């Protein structure tokens, strides 16, 4: 259960965003007022029941995204073994979602959160920041990662938002290719985008469309359009400014949500030096990498 005294609410015009800094720096909800009352633009969490960021509307991915095979990799000659939950085969989603973030600055419509990591199994010291802001036409989240160690650190980041998926939900985006996963949910074969995944033309996520795949060559622009349910007639356009060349789409069977995750590198990138565009950022001591993700609202 998320303590109610740790929930922060941002408000701007007809929009509200509720956050739980202590629960992985997560967004509990993002909504706006419609004709019949509040309309959820992210899958909302119930703060009286949610026990994990995966119950929330969105959480940050730092200092890496998605899976590292068995939690093991070698970077610049250093072998690293990361602990991971016994329920997972791999280290997953980085540190940010498992730790509490602190509030550094706050206004009625914006919040800046910080996370400070001391070297441990991940042997590099770093700081991460999120700046979440409500704007006139939507929501923006800025991510920053600073290497505070004395050695170059492998780095990556992204977001893991959960969107509603009523019937007829359509995703439109331009990507270059897709990774097929093996039985351990690690990418093993890359292909051009097949006709069955017609994202450039707008792919409707019918119940038969089940995805947990990484896509390459993303141009930083994606649109989610809803034609039914409370969000009918609404489009959220995702605009990425920064090193977000990859996107993960997770649309599990039998669920009423989808995840469209903008990320800086492919899954298991730290174990894929054979892939030219794997996306690992070699962050020098004292160097910072940042990027901004904007969720723009419009009607049709």
TrEMBL record:
Pfam family name, one: Aldose_epim
GO annotation terms (biological process): carbohydrate metabolic process
GO molecular function term, any single one: carbohydrate binding
Family annotation (InterPro entries): Aldose_1/G6P_1-epimerase (IPR008183), Gal_mutarotase_sf_dom (IPR011013), GH-type_carb-bd (IPR014718)
SUPFAM superfamilies: Galactose mutarotase-like
Protein name stated in the entry: Aldose 1-epimerase
């Amino acid at each position: 259960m998320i303590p109610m005294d740790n929930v922060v609410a941002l408000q701007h015009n007809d929009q509200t965003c509720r956050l739980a800094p202590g629960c992985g720096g997560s967004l509990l909800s993002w909504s706006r007022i419609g004709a019949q009352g509040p309309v959820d633009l992210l899958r909302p969490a119930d703060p009286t029941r949610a026990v994990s960021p995966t119950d929330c509307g969105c959480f940050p991915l730092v200092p890496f995204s998605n899976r590292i095979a068995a939690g093991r990799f070698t970077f610049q000659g250093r072998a690293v073994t990361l602990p991971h939950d016994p329920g997972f085969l791999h280290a997953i989603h980085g540190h940010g979602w498992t730790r509490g973030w602190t509030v550094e600055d706050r206004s009625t419509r914006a919040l800046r959160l910080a996370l400070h990591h001391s070297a441990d199994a991940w042997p590099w010291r770093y700081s991460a920041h999120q700046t979440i802001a409500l704007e006139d036409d939507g929501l923006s989240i800025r991510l920053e990662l600073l290497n505070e160690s004395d050695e170059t650190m492998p780095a990556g980041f992204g977001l893991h938002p959960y969107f509603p998926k009523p019937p007829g939900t359509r995703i439109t985006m331009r990507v270059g290719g897709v990774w097929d996963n093996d039985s351990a949910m690690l990418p093993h074969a890359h292909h051009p985008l097949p006709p069955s995944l017609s994202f450039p033309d707008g792919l409707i996520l019918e119940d038969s469309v089940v995805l947990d795949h990484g896509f390459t060559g993303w141009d930083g622009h994606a649109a989610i359009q809803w034609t039914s349910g409370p969000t009918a007639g609404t489009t959220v356009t995702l605009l990425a400014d920064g090193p977000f060349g990859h996107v993960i789409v997770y649309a599990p069977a039998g669920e009423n949500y989808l995840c469209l995750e903008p990320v800086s590198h492919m899954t298991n990138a730290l174990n894929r030096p054979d892939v030219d565009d794997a996306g690992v950022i070699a962050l020098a001591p004292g160097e910072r990498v940042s990027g901004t993700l904007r969720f723009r609202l419009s009607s049709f």
